[in-house]
Amino acid sequence: MKISANFDGGNIDVVEISCRTTKLNIRLDNASEFYQWFYFKIEMTDLSEQTFIIENAGQASFADGFETFQACLSYDGEHWTRTQTQYDGDKLTITVSPKSKTFWLASFEPYSWDRHENLRAELSANARVNHSVVGHSIEGQPIDLYQIGKSAPGKKTVWITARQHPGEVMAEWWSEGLLKRLLDPSSRELLDECTVYVVPNMNPDGSRRGNLRTNAAGVNLNRIWGVSDLKHSPEVHHVSAKMSETGADIVLDIHGEEMIPFCFLAGGHGAPAFTRRLADLHDQFLATYMQAHTSMQADHGYPIPDGDVDLTIQTYWSVETFGCPAFTLEMPFGRDDTNPDNPDGWTAQSAMELGAAALPAIQDLLKLL
User: Fold this and answer.
1) Is 55 among the catalytic positions?
2) Using CA atoms, how far apart are residues 86 and 331, in angstroms rounded to an integer?
3) First vs last Cα of the chain: how many Å apart?
């Protein structure tokens, strides 16, 4: 048997391979202690059942999230399903009865750089899209920005960023779903009211390295807003500068959540500039989003902060900088307990549909601004 992870987004280290059982460790982010994301390829000599044991799962950054988790399996690198997975509080055990001698296992359906580039080519060819490179990452990769709709006096500005944490790949799937719906004729009325700016991958270096949480310098990008610099966090430095140039009336930052098996929103509650009006706008946005998609819910999520908040988190920075409604959207890695009968739980397709469903909520919110 051969196991490899030396490819875009790959992450695993082999500890020991035996006839039916393979012991593995997830690699730490290249410049930090975070780890949880895994993605690797298996090449076998026969079709015997195999057990893969991730030895260091119990010490992962959000280890309790493995309790509601089923690993993703693919035989072609494109189509993914869930496979039998158990977590005992220490080790994560994945069992596969393979249908092919070659297959892949991952924490979630990967979003590859090839797909990112293919989407860039598709969008750039559309006359309604203004594509630009707002800056470059530490390792010189482009930070792609898509402007949908022309700027004009009186129009509102909506900013959407995704995948600050590179292992949260569902965030980029969400962005693709939203971008494609924005270009549908049904979105013309929305684009008459606003200009939408989308950065579908804030952390290209971490994404290609197979990191969970940080960029190439070991920086958690969602803890650096307002204090970023070109050396250690150029990704945030460039995007925040562009946001300050255009202004923002609505901000959404898209993530994945390892521990909570629900889709939910976190707002600017607790920021000094967060007002009763912003709280009402948050509630209205969530209510409309829940009507647009059955997985969005209000009963499970992060507790509302009681006391000071970290203003270097993008959502809080946005509230303080623009005085606008700002949201962190979270999606699960495994089960979607709002729809527990779905055997595949939360999927890439689910994330794309949730991204498309955000547009009615955005349009409804614009009417109140």
Assistant:
1) no
2) 21
3) 59
Are residues 188 and 261 both part of a single domain? yes
Virtual torsion, Cα 272, 266, 315, 228, nearest 10 deg = 110
d(CA 255, CA 160): 11
Domain boundary residue among 106, 135, 160?
106
Instruction: Provide the mean pLDDT of the chain.
Output: 97
CB neighbours of residue 139 within 10 Å: 13
Q: Is 321 helix (H, G, I), strand (E, B) or coil?
A: helix
- Count CB-CB contacts under 10 A for residue 214: 26
Taking only the tens place, the pLDDT of each residue in 236-252 is: 999 999 999 999 999 99
Q: How many domains, in total, are found in the chain? A: 2
Q: Tokens standing for 231?
A: 């050396």
Close Cβ partners of 43 (under 8 Å, ≥ 6 residues apart): 1, 2, 3, 4, 101, 102
> Residue 74: beta bridge partners?
80, 104
Q: Which of 257, 320, 330, 353 is catalytic?
A: 330
Cα within 13 Å of Cα(248), Cβ side:
29
> Same domain for 193 and 57?
no
Query: In the block, which residue shows the tokens 């889709």?
Result: 263
Q: Same domain, yes or no, for 345 and 259?
A: yes
